[in-house]
Amino acid sequence: VQLVESGGGLVQPGGSLRLSCAASGFTFSNYAMSWYRHAPGKERELVAAITSAGGSQDYAGSVKGRFTISRDNAKNTVYLQMNSLKPEDTAVYYCAKHYSSTWYGALGLWGQGTLVTVSL
Asked: Cβ distance 98 to 33 under 8 Å?
């Protein structure tokens, strides 16, 4: 049972990245998924969440309109498309599995994280 993130890297302000999180070992389509981030000196922050079927999404105010969470249940993968990136988006990004089909359920599994650095 694991989550493996990929797609992080160095990008200039205004640029884009797409993060992926591949799930294995459980029935992916049954569970809501979220993306969190943790920047140095700051608390961990919920970035985006998506229900098990992908029909509903929720975003932190700081990323709304710039980031899009999506999922492909056939590929057991959740994505985070990040556009118009800002230096303050620099953080380690983690995907996480909820215990239920909605993001109101507790979190039960975390990936290892992928580093996103937004800088000139």
From this structure: yes
CA distance 38 to 15: 20
Q: What is the pLDDT of residue 49?
A: 97
Strand-strand pairing, 114-118 and 9-11: parallel
Q: What is the SS3 assignment for 119?
A: coil
pLDDT tens track for 4-58? 999 999 999 999 999 999 999 999 999 999 999 999 999 999 999 999 999 999 9
**95 CB burial (10 A radius; 0-12, 13-18, 19+):** buried
Averaged pLDDT score across all residues of the chain: 96
Alpha-carbon span 120 to 118, nearest angstrom: 7
CA distance 105 to 120: 39
Residue 35 near residue 18, CB atoms below 8 Å: no
